[in-house]
Structure formats: C-alpha cells, structure tokens
Design a protein that fits this description.
Helices cover 15% and strands 24% of the residues. The protein is α+β, with helices and mostly antiparallel strands. The longest helix is centred in the first third of the chain and has 10 residues, at 26-35.
Length: 121
Amino acid sequence: MLNNLNANQYQNVYMACGYTDLRLGIDGLASIVQSRFHLNPFQKRTLFLFCGRRADRIKGLLWEGGGFLLLYKRLEDGKFQWPRNTDEVMQMNSQQFRWLMEGLSVTQKRLVKEVHPRSSF
C-alpha cells in the first residue's frame, strides 16, 4: 500500500529518524509526533513514517479527518535505508519518498552533474 501512495497527494511527509518501537499503535505514534517533534498528528494530508531497529518494516500514520489510518509495510528480503544518526523528524519531498520506497537512501551523497561538452571539434 505504501508503494502505491503518491507523495504529491500529501501536503507533508515526515520521517521520524532514528529508531521507533514499532509495538506502538496509533495512540503511541501520535504521542511521539506531538511530544517529541512538536507537530500536529491531526493535520490532514500529512503522513508520518516510523522505522524500527531491524529496518525491514515501517509504519505510517495518517489522519483522514474522521480517524487515523495506520499503514504497515514489512520487507521479506532487504532493509529500508533509514537515517539512524539522529532523533529528529525530517520533512521529505516526493522524490525522497520514492527513493525510500525503492530501497534507496533519502539522503543521496552526490548528484550527477550536468556536463557541457566543449564545442572544439
């Protein structure tokens, strides 16, 4: 289900960097959003993503206006490239969300630079 989501349909996508205890349910994850990150979990069109220590599963929390939607994705083979060096929240753009769902790092080390060939033929 997370792969099929279009990040452009959301106003904001936030990634909770570091480790999150995925035994937590909706109330626990919403509490983390409020207390640790000082964000409003009841904001429409805002997706919050969390990852556990094993990095093979993530949870998504989404307020739909009348209630929360809890999304869960577990990889059978492989791990998500999740930033572990901080206990902060990172706002993601649609490209970073696609990279995450494709198994890539959301913080690319370098970009391919545009080359302008010399016209001395």
